[in-house]
Amino acid sequence: MIRLIVHLALAAPAVILALAWQRQALGVDFQKALIFESGIWTFNLLLVVLALPWAARWAHWPELLRYRRAIGLWTFAYASTHFSFFFSFLLGWDFARLAEEIAERPYVLLGFGAWLVLLALAATSTRATMRRLGRNWKRLHTAVYLALALVAVHYLLMIRSDWAWPVSYAVLALVLLALRLRRAVPART
Amino acid sequence: MARTTDETTYRRRRFIAGALGLGTLGTFSALRYGDGVVAAKEDDTVTVAKTTQDPPLLNSAGARLTTKYAATHYNNAYEFGWDKTDPYRESGAFQLRPWAVTFDGLCARPGTFDLDDLMGMPFSHLEERVYDFRCVEAWSMVIPYNGRPLSDILRVVEPLASARYVAFTSVLRPDQMPGQVSAFSTLGWPYVEALTLEEAMHPLTFATFGVYGDQALPQNGMPLRITVPWKYGFKSPKFIVRITFTEERPKATWHHENSREYGWYSNVYPEISHPRWSQASERRIWGEGDIERIPSRPYNGYGKQVAHLYPGAAQQYR
Predict the structure, then answer these.
(1) What is the ipTM of this complex?
(2) Hey, which CATH number is domain B56-317, 3.40.50.300, 3.90.420.10, 3.40.630.30, 3.90.1150.10?
């Protein structure tokens, strides 16, 4: 029951966005809106999944950690949607141009790098790989912090003149990174 | 871990559950698109095609135009805010009249003129020109502009032989332009943009008093915008109150803010990338939900008329 609610909540932004798209409610430049919203929801969920252990410890509520994998996989789904929108709307699924953009533009490189990290984490998220990789699995999955850092800089590079939101997100990312560096995340009980 | 469900723990859990619940509910308002369209559809000033289902909007000569709705609801005017919807939403209080424009610097007859005198004729008698508008952000529109060649106006004040540049200063009205008081903007106000005198006197450079036959559109830079169709859109300054002739190259706002990304000339050159994105192609916005990717052209397609102004390598005129 709770698991179902969690999944519905995680799907909500995508559903709302899809409905708005279908109703042509995304404004004149719906492509930019879709790229922006899918990107910002990737960032939101990344922050939630990394804040979860701290919330669980603070409230003595280890059950919260059961939903880490679900949130992580949804994060990857939003990231993939974001990447697909970018690839389709801005590059027209042209692989040569994608390679060019990755080579020439730091913000594309960082975004693509973050997506690769999330891809690797999603691909190794099954119980079977967890067992197979043993302690290395934990080591591999701290790379989620690398994804967070890449995403934060990726967003900062979008600034044209107004910096309030990108900087706020970067500060939240820094707080989570600092917490992680000061003390290892509390182990799952 | 001890399973103490004491009072504190209980309150903390409720707090987290509440925060997650609110976060979920918040998505509905955070996605600002819930009722955007409903409001737009009720906008009685909009009588032109808005969606792909409607037939394309054509001008009298048969050229396809961007819908008026798209061109007036998707604008960059940082004076009103950084979001593309801010200009139409935040410009309601903007006073379009009275409006005076001051001419100064290196000209024989400096002075201040009323906007209606600069128009020189009733608004409805002004020339209509359809120009491709190309934003530095790699989107474009096709827009009918109402106005007259800027050179007609500049000649009246008689620029001196020593004048080499023309600076255009936008209005400073923090009380009517919320973007001018935003603490989160790095731009300095008022906005200043500049051209060489040769560019300013070019017959394509257009003193614009309206678009789509409508002069009440502050989001599009009215009551007076200078339209320079072969350059990126930010070189077409809005809300002009001062025109200054100089010998030295004037400081231009975006160039001054970030010269690496915004060149002083900023002619449209598809082969010269913006540091963060390619300029090789553009997204042509025809209307809501109607966007087409097309290749960009040197000088935005006006090369035949203007290329002679820029001898030598294009790189000098980025």
Answers:
(1) 0.74
(2) 3.90.420.10
